[in-house]
Amino acid sequence: MLALFSRILKLSGRYKGRIQGAFVCAFLESILAKMPVFLAFLVLSGFYQKTLTKAGCLYIGLALAAVVVLQALVHYLCDRLQSAAGYMIFADKRMELGGHLGKLPMGYFTSGNIGKISSVLGTDMVFIEEAAMSTLGNMMSYMLSAFILLVFMFFLDWRPGLIAAAVTLLASVIAKGMNKVSLKEAAGRQDQSEHLTDAVLSFAEGIGVIKSYNLIGEKSEELTGNFRRSRDTSLAFERKMTPWTRGLNILYAVGIAAIFALSVQLQLSGGLSLPYLCGVLLFVFDLFSPLKALYGEASRLTVMNAALDRIEAVLNETELPDKGTAHIPSESSGSPEICFDHVTFAYEDKEVLHNISFSMQKNTMTALVGPSGGGKSTIANLLARFWDVKSGKVTIRGTDIRDVPLAELMEQISMVFQRVYLFQDTIYNNISMGKPDAAEKEIYEAAKKARCYDFIMALPDGFQTVVGEGGATLSGGEKQRISIARCILKDAPIIILDEATASVDTDNESYIQEAINELVKGKTLLVIAHRLNTIREADQILVISDGRISEQGTHDELMEKDGIYRDFVDIRKKF
Ligand SMILES: Nc1ncnc2c1ncn2[C@@H]1O[C@H](COP(=O)(O)OP(=O)(O)OP(=O)(O)O)[C@@H](O)[C@H]1O
């Protein structure tokens, strides 16, 4: 448990002082909570020895009043310090996690970690934020109360004190065993909870496909299966814990009975005076309640430990190194605008790009074409440093992109993906993300260039229309044009474009094409190309197949060869 305290303190960062303050309050509160019984013992003892005076009674009464007031005050302070600290720590932690996620390689998000991130943000952090601080405060107070009561029992008489100590020791041994079981079970429960989150997310994300293939029944069954497994693991957890909690309760009952019997026996044989017997009886029923409460919360500790493990695991994921201090020069001074220099890349162990070398001159267009799975998207992603190359290097104007701060690299590049993502925010804010300090006029201008101004103005709230859940429903082509307006506003010198393969309606396609033409004017363009018109216009075409550049040249040059490119064009001509 002490290890958990120190983990929480480590996590609490600049709020460490608050947490320590809360623990000191918990300590004071546990002492104050026992004071009334101690004062009662003083009264009894004075009464029995006939030493109790009126003034003494008055002082004890005043002390009792002071103790009650002080206890309420300390309790209030403890609560304030704890709960506020929980919320403050996790507000910071969420921001830290957000920043951290932004620096992880894309591979982290595509390897089944979405469920983990959701459960860290939605379950673990909320649990620790809301429960951990008060639980830890309570446990601290229970621990100290147990210790104070034990010391007081020894002060009254060492023999019942010894029984109390033996019970406390035995209880801690049982609690250790209980903890082990709970830890083992907690891991299984968490795995199941991650599976459940994954299943719910994948069901919600894939609902379109599920419906269109009439898989609702089958997929709902899978989801229900996950719900059932979650219920069963929780019930199994409770079942496995019950024998341990029963064992502890029996031990406390036997301990109380033994102390009771021994003290009465001692009093009858003259070994214990009456006020001390009363003292023992006053304390004995309360003696093990802090321990009971302490170990009652033990299962929460294991959940908390497991939650902290997961939060730390996500926070400890290796970020893409971002220590570079070099700057990309605004002019190339002889180097190509972009250069892939003997680049090799592997997703984990699977090498998918082998020794790729090519360069792109400023304001030219390079088209990547080739069979599916050849490596086109991977090349585009390496330029944006979504991953780092395994060997070789990618340079922009002669500077290795790994030597440049990520934020600066991102200023150089705009990406237009097939899958558009708009934030749940106004259209205005979605566009202005491209340049947060842009004037209103610039945003309207970008929207006009991206051929979306007219349809935005036709919406009831115009640019203030909220996109997404509960907001306006836009067509795929409209969303695409808004995302292009965002890129136009950003005005980065390099554009990576993943050309749409899915057919949008002809009207939309021509608008999108016009918007793209505006976007790429005077830019260096790397395009994953599917449309013959685009490919023909390219200054150079790279045919990527099996992770290699199998052909390279202009359309006319490549058509003269009897290779993959010519087949590729012939097939497209047929459609
Ligand atoms: N995140 C990933 N993790 C592991 N392997 C991946 C990942 N993304 C792509 N791959 C693999 O890398 C290889 C190249 O894929 P890539 O997406 O770059 O090809 P592509 O030419 O863009 O294909 P397409 O035209 O179908 O989009 C493929 O074998 C693919 O299975």
UniProtKB/TrEMBL annotation:
Going by the UniProt record, its keywords in alphabetical order are:
ATP-binding, Membrane, Nucleotide-binding, Transmembrane, Transmembrane helix, Transport
The cross-references to Pfam families, in alphabetical order and at most eight, read: ABC_membrane, ABC_tran
Native source species: Marvinbryantia formatexigens DSM 14469
- UniProt keyword Magnesium present: no
Q: Which GO terms describe its cellular component?
A: plasma membrane
Q: Which InterPro entries match?
A: AAA+_ATPase, ABC1_TM_dom, ABC1_TM_sf, ABC_transporter-like_ATP-bd, ABC_transporter-like_CS, P-loop_NTPase, Type_1_exporter
Query: Where does this chain mainly localize?
Result: membrane
Domain ABC transporter residue range list: 338-571
- Is Protein biosynthesis tagged as a keyword? no
The molecular function terms of the Gene Ontology recorded here are: ABC-type oligopeptide transporter activity; ATP binding; ATP hydrolysis activity
Boundaries of each ABC transmembrane type-1 domain copy? Answer: 35-294
How does this protein sit in the membrane?
Multi-pass membrane protein
Q: Which domain of life is it from?
A: Bacteria
Quote the protein name from its UniProt record: ABC transporter, permease/ATP-binding protein
Spans traversing the lipid bilayer:
21-47, 59-78, 139-156, 162-179, 249-268, 274-295
- UniProt subcellular location: Cell membrane
Q: Which SMART domains match?
A: AAA
